[in-house]
Amino acid sequence: MDLTRAAAEALDAADPVAAFRARFAGAGEDGLLYLDGNSLGRMPVATPAALTRVVEEEWARGLVRSWSSWVGAATRVGDLLAEGVLGAGPGEVLVGDSTTVDLYKLLVAAADARPGRDVLVCCADDFPTDRYVVAGVAQARGMTVREVPADVDEGLDHSVLAAALDERVAVVVLSAVAYRSGALADVAAVTRAVRDAGALVLWDLSHAAGAVPVDLAANGVDLAVGCTYKYLNGGPGAPAFLYVRRELQEQLRQPIWGWFGQRDQFAMGPVYDPVPGIERFAVGTPPVLALAAVEVGARLVAEAGVDRLAAKGRALGELVVALADDWLAPHGVALASPRDPARRGAHVTLASSAAWQLTQALVDRGVVPDFRTPDRVRLGPAPLYTRFVDVWDAMACIREVLASGVHEGYPTERSRVT
């Protein structure tokens, strides 16, 4: 690979989704080399106008009359995500609560659907909230948790998972893309293996949705959740989505019985009777303003096309890896993600004994990655708005910081004031 800046500029000139960069606030104007799109995506230029419309027209003028359009927002935006991002069908995706709450709802519903099975399986290196929810549900129900070990860099070995599956397993909770390393799971193969064992698998798509194809219907996925503030650019605290395969919906009853999941909602009846379809997984009043922001981000991803974004994401990652090998390895920095781009999501992680200090030095110089324990610098060049030359310049800055040793003057992670 040609590692010159001119080569990076040539890749940008040939980029089929390059024009989308101009549709994000600050991109190219704020001076930042932003490589943290896998934590929080940039704000689309159209988002303020969308929020203003809801506030000034629908709320200020329409008042309560606007509920005629608001009441269906969670399913409308869900259908947009289903078709344009997730490879699902209409009426299979709902947007509303947080990822943690959605995970809890679907996990309890799935466990109830497998009576007589008393084991929940999760990955020992998965995102903490996933493991916490699994542990909490197991404790409340008198179930056992099997935490399957995974390599912190390479991700879950499918043969290790297969060995953990037996007739006691009710539900398996896994991430499609590992939050720390970016390791990409084989969603179709794992789903088949779990189904063959008679269990259900619940996928967390938080680091996948909008960055890699997940093709829920084609891969036979039963259940999934994911956030909308990373590659979907819905904004901080944006509501999550949940997916339930249509054929499974009426077999499941989620544990939080709220009035938005009730059949004949405005009859205000005395007994909870869940509505048929995806709406039975709703709970309370939808976050109308937040849904308007999610809709803007989801439309941009759908317009760009997940396949094109995934291809660019792989190429950006390959540039990170090649530059890290050439420039950073002499300074003791090692790749902490799968080397094969087909086994990686859209972020790349590097290991360094001075990861925390390096991260702080970079932020002070206008390069924004993030730090993950124990000694990882995570680089997430979101393909919708990140240029190849941004990656080149950021990696050049990392090389300069390491060569100068300036990061050594920063406090260590353990001594920092929080």
UniProtKB/TrEMBL annotation:
It is an enzyme of class 3 (hydrolase). It holds the Pfam family KYNU_C. Keywords: Hydrolase, Pyridine nucleotide biosynthesis, Pyridoxal phosphate. Pathway: Amino-acid degradation; L-kynurenine degradation; L-alanine and anthranilate from L-kynurenine: step 1/1; Cofactor biosynthesis; NAD(+) biosynthesis; quinolinate from L-kynurenine: step 2/3. Its cofactor is pyridoxal 5'-phosphate. The modification N6-(pyridoxal phosphate)lysine is found at K230. GO terms for cellular component: cytoplasm. The keyword Ribonucleoprotein does not apply. GO terms for molecular function: kynureninase activity; pyridoxal phosphate binding. GO terms for biological process: anthranilate metabolic process; L-kynurenine catabolic process; L-tryptophan catabolic process to kynurenine; NAD+ biosynthetic process; quinolinate biosynthetic process. It catalyses: 3-hydroxy-L-kynurenine + H2O = 3-hydroxyanthranilate + L-alanine + H(+); L-kynurenine + H2O = anthranilate + L-alanine + H(+). Catalyzes the cleavage of L-kynurenine (L-Kyn) and L-3-hydroxykynurenine (L-3OHKyn) into anthranilic acid (AA) and 3-hydroxyanthranilic acid (3-OHAA), respectively. Belongs to the kynureninase family. Homodimer. This is Kynureninase. It comes from Geodermatophilus africanus. The gene is kynU.
